[in-house]
Amino acid sequence: MNYDPIKKDLGIVFNQSTFLRKIFYSLLDLLLLRTWHVHRELKLWLKSNKSAQILDAGSGFGQYSFYMAKRGKQFQIDAVDVKEDQIADCKQFFKKCGLNNANFAFGDLTLPIAQDKYDLVMCVDVMEHILEDVTVFKNFNQAMKKGGMLLISTPSDQGGSDVHEETGESFIGEHVRDGYPVAEMADKLKQAGFTQFEILYSYGTPGKIAWKLSMKYPMLMLNASKLFFILIPPYYLITYPFSYLLNWLDTNSKHNTGTGLIVKAWKS
Predict the structure, then answer these.
(1) pLDDT value of residue 4
(2) pLDDT tens digits, residue range 83-105?
């Protein structure tokens, strides 16, 4: 299934006003389990970093740039993406919000980015879309200051793209790989020059159920027909209390396996 047409439709709906865009961000924060995990790591990072140059590598709807930009002007954010429409939407929204500490621009992560510039690189829901991953990791390393941190959220090889054995195909059509084995991720980070890193599983047993309730089933409905938009609000009213509890359990537990990876790597 391709998410892009659904993402485009959601963008049209929620870009009608600044208020609706903020509601959209709040919904993403509540519904997306990876956002729970990423916010957990960002809160930990913020405890020891009061100002920073930040790269949002593959900024998408801009929700992570928004999260960091609201922390204050001492956090300067460069947000890059390959989708011109999303870049334009984010520029307009952030300008209306008066957030001048985030700059949005087109950026191909397979090309050199910067030299010793960033204290933090955020790369969420991106690497599963890029074949030349080692090149991207090398570009991140080059762009980071010494002691800077790279934060990645991406599917693991434990079913992160919801691959079914009978078909061998990913549920998410835009993915170029089904997910990373931990050993492969570690090896590619080493190839890129990272010597200190931590790789954690996300989307353990609670998260797998939460993802189906809050994302997979609604996306399947919307992919079948846009008429299902009218059923989405009552659907979430019924299912979200369960999803919320499952998200909390997944974020606050350690997992021996899981369909997602949270990766932290530091430049030495």
Answers:
(1) 56
(2) 999 999 999 999 999 999 999 99
Helix axes 4-14, 84-97, angle to 10 degrees: 30
DSSP secondary structure, 120-167, as one string:
EEEEES-GGG-S-HHHHHHHHHHHEEEEEEEEEEEEBTTTTT---TTT
Instruction: Please give the CATH superfamily to which domain 4-266 belongs.
Output: Vaccinia Virus protein VP39 (3.40.50.150)
DSSP assigned state of 231:
G
Domain range list for the chain: 4-266
- For residues 180 and 133, give the distance between their C-alpha atoms in angstroms, rounded to a whole number: 11
pTM of the model: 0.89
CA distances to 74, 136, 214, 260 from 115, rounded to whole Å, are: 20, 14, 40, 30
Cα separations in angstroms, 140 against 8, 117, 148: 28, 10, 10
Q: What is the largest CA-CA distance in the chain?
A: 52
Q: Dump pLDDT digits (tens) for 182-199.
A: 999 999 999 999 999 999
Task: Judge contact between 238 and 119, C-beta under 8 A.
Answer: no
